[in-house]
Amino acid sequence: IINSQQLILPGYQLNTTWLDDKCSPDQGAAELLSAWRNDQKWVALGANGCSAVCIRTATIAPYIRIPQISYGCASGALSDVAKYPDMGRFMTPENTMAEVFLSMGLNLNWTEIHIITGDPARFNAPAEYLQEYFHDKPIKA
């Protein structure tokens, strides 16, 4: 519709550049700035999946005048629209997920919830948030 049929953005073609940030804020920022330096025709930054990278690149994107859209950055910190005005995402924030887990657990009479994660570099922050959230709740994590 956009590129082949030219119905939405007549006269324009959108292309994708894939970069591997390795879920590292330093790597993500370096990749973004290097790619931008080599081609300033970008219109948006998309697809960051790690909250730590999103938090770092969300502070850079406004300076190069592009919005950032993420499919998987769940940090509740990114909900601060005053701090991250150009950040959008398709992932439910961690704080909302915790509320859903609590509501579901209460409805199902759970007494505890177990948090199982993968790579600590990627998942420790969300797991720690959930542990803190459930600290004073009737369901233990």
Question: Could you state the order of secondary-structure elements as H and E?
Answer: HEHEEHH
Major sheet size, sense and barrel closure: 3 strands, parallel
- The gross shape turns out to be elongated
Give the quaternary arrangement of the chains: single chain
Let me know the average pLDDT: 87
Contiguous low-pLDDT stretches (5 residues minimum) are none
> What integer value in Å does the Rg equal?
18 Å
Strand order of the largest sheet: 1-2-3
What proportion strand?
A: 5-15%
**Cα distance spanning the termini:** 47 Å
Helix and strand composition category: mainly alpha
Number of beta-strand segments:
3
Model description:
Helix content is 37%, strand content 7%. The protein is mainly α and 141 residues long. Strands 1-2-3 form a 3-stranded parallel β-sheet, with helices on one face. Helix 1 (25-38) packs across helix 2 (51-60). It is elongated and about 60 Å long.
Key traits:
141 residues; mainly alpha; 3-stranded parallel beta sheet; 4 helices; 3 strands
